[in-house]
Amino acid sequence: MPPPSLADHRFEVWAPRPDRVRLWLDGAVHPMRADPGGWWRTTAPAREGARYGYLLDDDGTVLPDPRSPRQPDGVHAPSALIPEVAPPRWEGRELRGAVVYELHIGTFTSEGTFDAAVERLPYLVELGVGFVQVMPVNAFNGTHGWGYDGVGWFAVHEPYGGPAGLERFVAAAHQVGLGVLLDVVHNHLGPSGNYLGRFGPYETDGANTWGRTINLDGAGSAEVRRFILDDMAWWLRRYGVDGLRLDAVHALVDDPDRHLLADAAALATELSAELGRPLALIAESDLNDPRLVTAADRGGYGLAAQWNDDVHHAIHTYVSGERQGYYADFGSPECLATVLTEGFFHAGTFSSFRGRVHGERIDPAVVAPSQLLAYTCTHDQVGNRARGDRPSEYLSPGRLAIKAALVLFSAFTPMLFMGEEWGARTPFRFFTSHPEPELARATVEGRTAEFAAHGWPPGEVPDPQDPATFAASHLDWTEREHPEHARLLRSYRALIALRDDPALAVDDLRAVTVDHPGEATWFAVHRGDLTLIVNVSDPPVTAPFGGTPVLEWAAPSVQGGATTVPGESFVVLRRAL
């Protein structure tokens, strides 16, 4: 194959801080000219794959492009040009109501690459999944990590397969009918390889949990906002992904009348019209704020959907009995009833964990339940436990099936976390690979101190820097062959298939009703002519509802207008209305 030919390429970078910027291109240095807005530009002949970067003032260090499309030699090295491509045409699909499957490329398979993940896509189609949601793949320092410490927001992590690998993954997913959602982080930058402050005022003096806050409303913020919106457009247009999961939007400090999220929603609408396919922006937020998904013409930001931790907490505590930390207010059947029929539990109510009133009530005439993502597991709810242990480590298969039934029977858009559908026993731990000794040490000490405050001895908290912590987090696909795991997997498939029933197609919280005896024995959810009854106790219980069983974990006994459900089990009945 002949080497790529030279072609004129336009290089531009926003750098209002330095007095001089020069382009470094494959060892040659080129002058650049600035405009009044701080943009430096030049045109130079370059080949595909050419290494380039910028020299600021008299510093001889070549810095990577803030908008670098590729960092083949790591986040501290020069950037590289990639070819312009047009993603294969596909019609897209609607997010709301589809089953979402969250996965981490590095641990989804033993190889930890996009190409290896492609081989598992037919399995997800058979399971009934509609979208894969991929944890962050933007460039970060080290070989493996969760991806939330990225510094190359436009680049694709090389160990996963780089830009070409992501292209192949998205194309393969679309070919089998799966949409692709990509997790992106715009609320902070990672601690290693962040050179943006050398170029311009990308960050403020303030800080959130993970680092300095991004400058969204101070001097120079217009270009920072443009940087973020261009990054969103980059993934949606250049790689053809179908939506973005916006990490921790509550950490976006933005005071202007028009919030960045409103601009992002407007951008998604424009791009959807341009590309001719649905696009979805999904917020992760702990604010319980319906404005995120309220339409712009109704005074909201207009995002497509948001994660709903209240549903997770209510189901998990009801089934597991855990009550520590932020679970303290959850666990009762009344709490579960509230979230399944109203969406949020904390909706202008007191949160004991926060020590204040939290959240706002959802107006069911304005927000549909399918705009809320519900789940029994996520990377957060598993990985942020001290040992990264999944519910399958401490709950029976029947209780796991109950949790799945409550989510998949709900009116919300359901999301699974990789492996939960067969009750994977492999943990998903917090793992890092910081090459800098001081950063590695700080990460280990910080993790240990965090959980020591909650009573965990240091030796029981896995070392995030230990390669064994990462290795243990890989899925073991052979588990599915074990009868116990295979049974749970069959139940997940049946519950997902049941979502095609017309009774579950009504997208209105007002169409969901619940019954329970006021204590932790049985709980019933009614949607149309279908009723889900769950029994979280050990002995059988009898609920005052009859009908024809259409799906079950263990065989119930139906006698007239009552159904006896075995212990730690569920049944779905079709009732005569």
Give a brief outline of the structure.
This protein is α/β, with parallel strands linked by helices and 577 residues long. It has 14 helices and 29 strands. This is Malto-oligosyltrehalose trehalohydrolase.
Walk me through what this model shows.
- The chain is of the alpha/beta class and 577 residues long.
- Among the domains are: 7-63, Immunoglobulins (Immunoglobulin-like), CATH 2.60.40.10; 513-574, Golgi alpha-mannosidase II (Immunoglobulin-like).
- It has 14 helices and 29 strands.
- The strands form 8 sheets. It has an 8-stranded parallel barrel with strand order 8-9-12-15-16-17-20-21, surrounded by 5 helices.
- The chain starts with 6 loop residues before the first strand and ends with a strand.
- The model has no long low-confidence stretch (mean pLDDT 95).
Lay out the secondary structure:
Layout: E1 7-14, E2 21-25, E3 28-31, E4 33-34, E5 39-46, E6 51-56, E7 79-80, E8 100-103, H1 105-108, H2 114-118, H3 121-127, E9 131-134, E10 138-139, E11 152-156, H4 162-175, E12 179-184, H5 196-199, E13 203-208, E14 211-214, H6 221-238, E15 243-246, H7 260-275, E16 280-283, E17 305-307, H8 309-320, H9 333-342, E18 349-351, E19 356-358, E20 372-375, H10 379-383, H11 397-408, E21 413-417, H12 437-452, H13 467-472, H14 483-498, E22 512-515, E23 522-527, E24 530-535, E25 541-543, E26 548-552, E27 557-559, E28 562-565, E29 569-574
Parallel strand pairs: 8-9, 8-21, 9-12, 12-15, 15-16, 16-17, 17-20, 20-21
Antiparallel strand pairs: 1-5, 2-3, 2-6, 4-5, 6-7, 10-11, 13-14, 18-19, 22-23, 23-24, 24-29, 25-28, 26-29, 27-28
Helix pairs in contact: 6-7, 8-9, 8-11, 11-14
